[in-house]
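[Discussion] Sanity-checking designs against the backbone

I'm trying to build intuition for which residues belong where. Below is a C-alpha cell string of 494 positions. I'd appreciate it if someone posts a full sequence so I can compare it with mine line by line.
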C-alpha cells in the first residue's frame, strides 16, 4: 500500500513539475508581429517577393518577428543577433525542417539530406557527402574535374563570336551540372542528355512551389492550385530517370575500377558504423539534393557577381589587375592561386552579402517551446532567417545598396561569420554541407571568367537590369547576357 501511495505521489509530482516547466515560458510574450487575418494569418501581406515583404514588416515590428503564415506560427530573424539566437543558442531545438507537403513526394518522403529529420540517418547522409565529395580532402582530390570543366567553359566562350551575346546563367548552369554529373556518376550528364537538362529546369521551377495547403492545412486536400499534381508529375519523371541512370551506372562499375565516383563510394559505404543504413530512397534523395542545392545557388550568385562587375567596370578592372599581377596572361587561374587573391575574395563576399542566393535560407522548425532573446517561441514554430534583409541592413552595413568589395579589405574581419553578419550558407547544425565547395567554386569560376575575358553588354544595352525573381533561389529576373573578348594568350585556353 505504501509503495502504491509513493508511486502515485511521485507520478503526481512529475506531472505537476512537467506542467509547471511547460507553462513557464508562456509567461514571456511572443515576439512582436502583425496581427494577421483569421485562417490566412499574415499571408495577404506576403506577395511574390516574400523576402522583401518580410523585410518591410521587420522594419515595423523588429528583427525578431512572429506572425502566422496561414495557420502556422513563424518567426522571422532579420538581424545578426536574432539569427544567433536561433542558429546558435536555440540551434538544437531548431535542427529540424518543417514537413511541407510540396516537398514530401519529391524528396521520397523527406528521405534526402535537406529535409531529413535530424537524427542518425541525417548524420550518415551528411557524413557520406563530406567524406566522399565535400570535405577538404575529397574536394582537393576532385580538383582535376573542376579544372577540366572550367576549361570547357572558357573555350566555349572564346569560340562564341564576340558579336553573339553569351547567356551567362545557361553557361554557368551547364558547368555546375557537368561538374556535379562527373563527380557523382562519371558522366557529363547535362550536355549528354536534353531530357536531363529539361528535367532539371522542371525540378528547379517546381521545388520552390509555394503551396497554400502547407500553410492552411484545412484546404490542403483540395489542392486548389493543382500544385500536388504538378509535384507528383515532376517526381515521377525524376524517379524514372534516376532509376535508369543508377541501373546504367551499376552495369558499368567494372569500368571504374580503381577510380570510383561518388555513387560507387556511397554504395560501398552505405552502412554506417552504428548500423544505420542509407536506403535506395536516401541515395536518390541525395542525388536530387546534389543536382539542385549543389548547382543552382552557386550559379545564381556567380551571375550576380558578373552583373555587378559589368555595372561597375572599375571593380572588374581591379579584379583583373590583381590576377594579372599574380598570374600574368600566359596561363589561366588555378584553384591554388585563390588564397592570394584578396580582392577577388572580397568581390565574392560582397556578392553573397547583396545577393544571398537563398534569401530566406531554408526553413527550420522548433521541436519544443523555448525562449529566444526574452520571447516565448512555441513548439512547431517555423523559422526563416531573412539573409537578404540582413545583407541590406544599414545598421550593420555602410551604404548597403552600394556594391563595394572594399568593405571586406583591411577592416579587421568585417562581416565575420562568428558575429552572424554574413551567413549565406546558414549556420549551426543544418549549415550548408557544401559550404566549402560552394565558396571554392564561386571564387574559381568567377575569377577564371574575369581573368580570361573582357565583358561588356550587348550593343544597344546601357545598363544591367538588376531586378530579382523569387523562385527556388533568387536569380536575376532577366538572365544576364554579355559579349566577351579573350584577354589571355591563346595557349592559356588549352
Ligand atoms: C553558393 C553556394 C551555396 C549556397 C549559398 C548555399 C546555401 C545553403 C543554405 C542557406 C542552406 C540552409 C542552411 C540552414 O538550414 O541553416 C543550405 C543547405 C544545404 N546545402 Fe547549400 N548552398 C550552396 C552550395 C551547396 C553545394 C555546392 C552543395 C552540395 C554539393 C549544397 C548542399 C546543401 C545541402 C545538402 C543542404 C542541406 C543541409 C542540411 O539540411 O543538413 N549546397 N545551403
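Best answer:
Here's mine. Compare freely.
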Amino acid at each position: 500500500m505504501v509503495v502504491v501511495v509513493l508511486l502515485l505521489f511521485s507520478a503526481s509530482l512529475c506531472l505537476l513539475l512537467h506542467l509547471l516547466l511547460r507553462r513557464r515560458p508562456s509567461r514571456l510574450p511572443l515576439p512582436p508581429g502583425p496581427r494577421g487575418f483569421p485562417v490566412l494569418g499574415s499571408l495577404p501581406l506576403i506577395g511574390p517577393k516574400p523576402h522583401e515583404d518580410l523585410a518591410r514588416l521587420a522594419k515595423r515590428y523588429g528583427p525578431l518577428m512572429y506572425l502566422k503564415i496561414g495557420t502556422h506560427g513563424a518567426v522571422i530573424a532579420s538581424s545578426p543577433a536574432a539569427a544567433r539566437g536561433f542558429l546558435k543558442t536555440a540551434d538544437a531545438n531548431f535542427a529540424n525542417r518543417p514537413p511541407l507537403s510540396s516537398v514530401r513526394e519529391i524528396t521520397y518522403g523527406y528521405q534526402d539530406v535537406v529535409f531529413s529529420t535530424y537524427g542518425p540517418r541525417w548524420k550518415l547522409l551528411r557524413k557520406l557527402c563530406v567524406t566522399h565529395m565535400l570535405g577538404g580532402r575529397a574536394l582537393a582530390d576532385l580538383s582535376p574535374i573542376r579544372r577540366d570543366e572550367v576549361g570547357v567553359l572558357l573555350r566555349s566562350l572564346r569560340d562564341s563570336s564576340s558579336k553573339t551575346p553569351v547567356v551567362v546563367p545557361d553557361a554557368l548552369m551547364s558547368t555546375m551540372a557537368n561538374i556535379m554529373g562527373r563527380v557523382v556518376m562519371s558522366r557529363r550528364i547535362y550536355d549528354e542528355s536534353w531530357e536531363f537538362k529539361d528535367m532539371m529546369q522542371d525540378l528547379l521551377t517546381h521545388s520552390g512551389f509555394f503551396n497554400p495547403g502547407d500553410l492552411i492545412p484545412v484546404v490542403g486536400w483540395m489542392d486548389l492550385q493543382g500544385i500536388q499534381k504538378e509535384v507528383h508529375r515532376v517526381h515521377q519523371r525524376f524517379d524514372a530517370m534516376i532509376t535508369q541512370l543508377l541501373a546504367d551506372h551499376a552495369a558499368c562499375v567494372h569500368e571504374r575500377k580503381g577510380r570510383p565516383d561518388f555513387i560507387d563510394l556511397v554504395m560501398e559505404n552505405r552502412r554506417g558504423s552504428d548500423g544505420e543504413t542509407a536506403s535506395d530512397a536516401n541515395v536518390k534523395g541525395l542525388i536530387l539534393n546534389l543536382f539542385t542545392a549543389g548547382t543552382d545557388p552557386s550559379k545564381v550568385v556567380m551571375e550576380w557577381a558578373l552583373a555587378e562587375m559589368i555595372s561597375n567596370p572599375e571593380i572588374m578592372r581591379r579584379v583583373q589587375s590583381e590576377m594579372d599581377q599574380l598570374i600574368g596572361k600566359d596561363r589561366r587561374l588555378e584553384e591554388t592561386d585563390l588564397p592570394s587573391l584578396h580582392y577577388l575574395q572580397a568581390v565574392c563576399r560582397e556578392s553573397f552579402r547583396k545577393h544571398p542566393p537563398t534569401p530566406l535560407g531554408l526553413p527550420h522548425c522548433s521541436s519544443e517551446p523555448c525562449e529566444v532573446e526574452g520571447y516565448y517561441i512555441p513548439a512547431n514554430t517555423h523559422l526563416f532567417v531573412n539573409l537578404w534583409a540582413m545583407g541590406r541592413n544599414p545598421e550593420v552595413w555602410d551604404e548597403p545598396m552600394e556594391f563595394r568589395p572594399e568593405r571586406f579589405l583591411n577592416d579587421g574581419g568585417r562581416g565575420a561569420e562568428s558575429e552572424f553578419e554574413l551567413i549565406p550558407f546558414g549556420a549551426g547544425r543544418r549549415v550548408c554541407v557544401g559550404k566549402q565547395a560552394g565558396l571554392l567554386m564561386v571564387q574559381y569560376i568567377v575569377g577564371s571568367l574575369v581573368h580570361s575575358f573582357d565583358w561588356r553588354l550587348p550593343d544597344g544595352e546601357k545598363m544591367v537590369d538588376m531586378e530579382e525573381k523569387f523562385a527556388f533561389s533568387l536569380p536575376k529576373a532577366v538572365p544576364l547576357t554579355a559579349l566577351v573578348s579573350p584577354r589571355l594568350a591563346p595557349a592559356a585556353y588549352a
